[in-house]
Amino acid sequence: MSNASNTVWLVDNYDVAVADVNLYTAFVSLGASILQLLVLAYVENVFDQNHTVTRKQVNSVVNNTLVVMIFTNPINTVTYYYSTITEGPASAANMIISNASNVLFYAAYFQYSWTRGRNVIDNVLPGVIPFIPYYFIVFILLELATNTLYTILCLIPATDPAYDTLNTWTNNTYTAATILLFPFDAGVMAAYIRYMWHVRGDFADADVGALRVISRFGIASLGVFFLGLFGEMISSYVAWDYSDPGDCSASLIVMVLNWNVDTLYLFLQVWMKVQLGREREAEGERRRNLVDRARRMTGSVSREVAALMPGPSSVRRSRASSPATT
């Protein structure tokens, strides 16, 4: 098939291509979530057997919120796909579930990101701590508003007089939520970088290895989310010409980007868990080596001191040969 024929097919079958993208995304996120859960369970089990992680660490806020994100990501994409191929109440129910899971995903994401960075922020920017709960509440309200408006928007025809107004409000609330979320991410990352700068030579009082792992993956995660933000802003504010093959292709590329950002982000978090586990093992080995070295040095010093000290028989001979005093 020639390029001209391909472009004509894309224009004539754009809705089919969109459905294919949605189906592909649903399968990818579902398969990815299964793999992520398996890797996460394997990592925790391996490090638990090696006694480098406790049950309390396994059942932590970070792990629990990560699992919530892994579960809600495919629920979001799969139910969204079914909302596009069904009609009536079934479509509405799937859309409501999809948007509810999206809100839950970002609530878990906010809590995950905050919990992961709280200790560092408390050391670097303690003044912001009291404001974070209010920040979180405003963000969740904006997410709820965005997803509620988007659900209504998807359920009414484009010819409805309220459609354009709802579309504008949906884009505005989404933009406000995004503006609120990404400075938070950037602030957490800045706190990590600043903290590492302050403790760069202080290996005794700071887990620099773990912070380096978290910072490296934090930068990558932030980059992924900014990429997703760019795609979402394009989708919200660019008016595509669906009679133009170039616009059709570009909109599909942006759609693939938007729907797979969360999956890529979760892979980064799971891989970070692997690297942190390895860092814990390495740190444990370093500490055991330090203890062994200290014991050897203590034993060596004790033997040297013992060699310099006079024995009991020498002390007795010394007392026997001493003149009596009166």
Oligomer: single chain
Number of helices: 10
**Structural class given helices, strands, pairing?**
mainly alpha
Shape: elongated
**In whole angstroms, how far apart are the ends?**
123 Å
DSSP strand count:
0
Radius of gyration: 30 Å
| Uncertain regions spanning at least 5 consecutive residues | 315-322
Largest sheet report = none
Give the H and E element order.
Answer: HHHHHHHHHH
Rounded mean pLDDT score: 77
Which strand-content bin applies to the residues? under 5%
Helix content: over 70%
Features:
326 residues, mainly alpha, 10 helices, 84% helix, elongated
Offer a concise description of the structure.
The protein is mainly α and 326 residues long. It contains ten helices and no strands. Helix 2 runs antiparallel to helix 4, helix 2 (14-49) runs parallel beside helix 9 and helix 5 (88-124) packs antiparallel against helix 6 (132-155).
